[in-house]
Records
---
Amino acid sequence: MPHDRALVLFSGGQDSATCLAWALARYAHVETIGFDYGQRHRVELQCRTTFLQRLKGEFPAWGAKLGADHLLDLGLLGQVSDTALTADKAIEFEANGLPNTFVPGRNLVFFTFAAALAYRRGLTVLVGGMCETDYSGYPDCRDDTLKALQVTLGLGLATRMVIETPLMWIDKAATWRLTEQLGGEPLVRLVRDETHSCYVGDHTQQHAWGYGCGQCPACELRRKGWDGYVGA
């Protein structure tokens, strides 16, 4: 089976939006999947809908290749987690060195459900915005984790599944530059204005780099990346 049909894990955030554009530039048919897991920053689910609508309208060549969007209810993930992403609690570091925004198993669950959906729809490429260059230290974002998961999914489904992570080895400034390379200034503006990365879920305060509280780790990474991009 040719690997020309992809499913993008699209949360509504900057990284996954850039990965969606990356996939649309490479594959003949692209679908998207999102997850409602009781996240504190649920506003990202609204942003993903707006972003998809605008992407289709402003980039018609990509819109012609963009297929169905799927939103799965994974509320059980929130029920088994006690984190700052699934409960109203202060963001801080735990004794193990990880921030309490780490939702154990989240990406493992996401890719497993994505693979099951992809299998049914004849999609053999899974695209995610995971990165271990500028990131919060989540172990399920690491390249080794996802390579192992790719093997596991392929064996479990008896189908060759490919996991692509185009941002794995670049920082946030380079992610903005990739966005510009893919869609020029219009795509940069679209990602800046219509995506959400803030862990707190604040989509009321607008900054040069987009919306967010400006204080949480996700906002700090996004701000530093933007400053590096515009200052380059």
---
Amino acid sequence: MTVSAAPAEAILEESQPGGRRSRLRGSSDARAYGLATITTIYLLWSLVPVAIVVLFSFNAGRSRSTWQGFSTRWYTWDPDGSVLNDESIRVTLMHTIVLGILATIITVPLGVLLALALDRWRGRIPAGANFTVLITFVIPEIALAIGLLFMVTYLATPFGLGTTAQVIGLVTFQLAYPVVICRARLLTIGTQYEEAARDLGATALGAIRRVILPMLFPAILVSAIIVFAGVLDDFVIVRYLSSDASTETTSMRIYQTARAAPTPALNAMATIILVVSTVVIILGWLLYRRLNRGERGTDIGAIASQI
């Protein structure tokens, strides 16, 4: 019995520098290098301006374009213009962080409850609610801000322009994020864990509280991070619903002073918000990784121990 040498010759031909496998590998390498180049350009384009803002927040002089030496003047010791000594900057920073905390505390629980309801309720009403939630991704933020402004100004609402209106507007705009994220997580969880908990004697509410919510917690955590970061960065809604200087946020302050003759204290204020956002994201990411490691061992026996 003889074996044809054709397959061996084909393999040898493909392994040659001009062979088919070499051409495919070369094409793959070219695509990888091209993707890496585009990614690098994008990162530089996005991060270099931010790095310049942070750098000039430590400038010793008043210039925001000419480096005059390293100093923490605009953070601490300047008697008039530093973040520590300028009361208006401190009020702006505190109001921005308070808005972020309040909006996150209200938005995330509402989003989780709405996601659970939409995941289990069938019919025209939940379909309409789901459409309303998703359409906020399409409606321009300025249209929503103008609508909220007219509602607060011309309708008999129990509140006026100011912090309360800003919180309600931010919750309205950010609510879609926890709903979408938690619904996606619910689809991956499925119904088997809840059914197992019910078979073991848990009530419907008990199964959600003891089984579903712990498994949903990574999505809740991600939703909170996204909402908090989005509120810190928001400009349109908070500007339209602002009442006076006490309800001014960092984005509003930067916009109003950027075209004048601002000092590097403006850079320092933006840097502080950047640091707060980064710390929250890093802590959330570390907690998310830890929760994911602990979740890999989830099984019916673990559910039984919780009931």
---
Amino acid sequence: MIYQSDGLTDNDLLETYWQSHIDPMLSSQTNLDQSVAGLIELANQYNGHDNITAIAVRAKVRPNLDQLQ
């Protein structure tokens, strides 16, 4: 049996708090540094017994306007 865990995903933490912590990160207006800090704070509060890993990457996609002509 292989058991994997992470303080951010233990005990369905993200499944419970996705609306308040993950969903807002989809907005380009959201500060990712503050959002990741909030995720780490949440994980420490509920799952501080385990390690915590969080990485956020924002990729903005712009259409190739030359192909539309």
---
Amino acid sequence: MRLVSPLLKRAIYPALHHSGWLARVPPPGGYAVVNYHGVVPDDYSADDTFLDGNLVQPEAFRQQLQFLKAHYHVIHPEDFRAWIEQGKRLPARAILLTCDDGLVNNLTDMLPVLRSESVACLFFVTAASCGDDPGMLWYEELYHLMRIKPLSGSDLHLLTEAGADSALAESLQAQWWRTLRSASQLDAGTRADWMRRVRNHCGLPQGFRYESRSARRWRLLNIAELKRLAEAGMSVGAHTLTHPVLSLCSDEEARWEIQGSKTELERVLGKPVWAFAYPFGNPATMGEREFRLARAAGFSCAFLNVEHWRGEQSNPFALLRTHVTLDMTLPEFTAHLSGVHNRLQRAVAG
């Protein structure tokens, strides 16, 4: 698929899109869920696109919303909830908008576009947004800290001995992902203590210092901002307490991460939190155990961050989503929504 993708992206998808054919193909199952992670603030200049690739430009976001409104039915999250909980019918070609992580640009940069286009979104946030000073996602902070000073050779390295030997030949991104996975095996308190030691190691005892102009890119929503988002007519779902790789957590820790996020958000919002999104949300980071824990926690449904999952496709705790990225063109976006991209990918892989 790697060899086919450039041809699809630059020639085949644009041709199919401009012919109007892709927009006429109904989503698999009659509906689709589109997932974002925020937008690039207008005052932010990326110096490393590795993490920024999960965001979208504001104008691309607006263009995608306008396309969806013209060719699909963008539903309110509460309509999706009524379908899940009560069996109420969805309109044909229904689209649900979601957004993960709870970055402050969800309020400052995404919400104005959503309101101007008169559509609603289901925002999945961590329990960090239930406080006054949420900081940033720990694994994004870890990436910045590892850029400042490598952890290899220090007592902070969490890799196994074999992993540490091979890490010397790895890219920064590979070392970061390996370290992130190792840190996810720690309980939340131990991980927080380890992160404080990493900050000290890098000469930043009080945490990563994002510049004020980039705060909208990195900072999470605080409790007041989260309430403003909900008061604006947006829905809020849970995204764990601390955003670890759930599959690497112990049974007790994974249960605490999932159940605790629901409890905390319901406490601060004063209303039921019915939807959950798995952190990272791909087969390498969660599985059947997490499905069972989300159901046991009392959620009505839970979302992945992939377009295909092995096994039963009607599981309400394994709902598929199209993940929109910075480099995704509108024709590519259309190919994903129609299911054409996924069918081609599976055909090549098979």
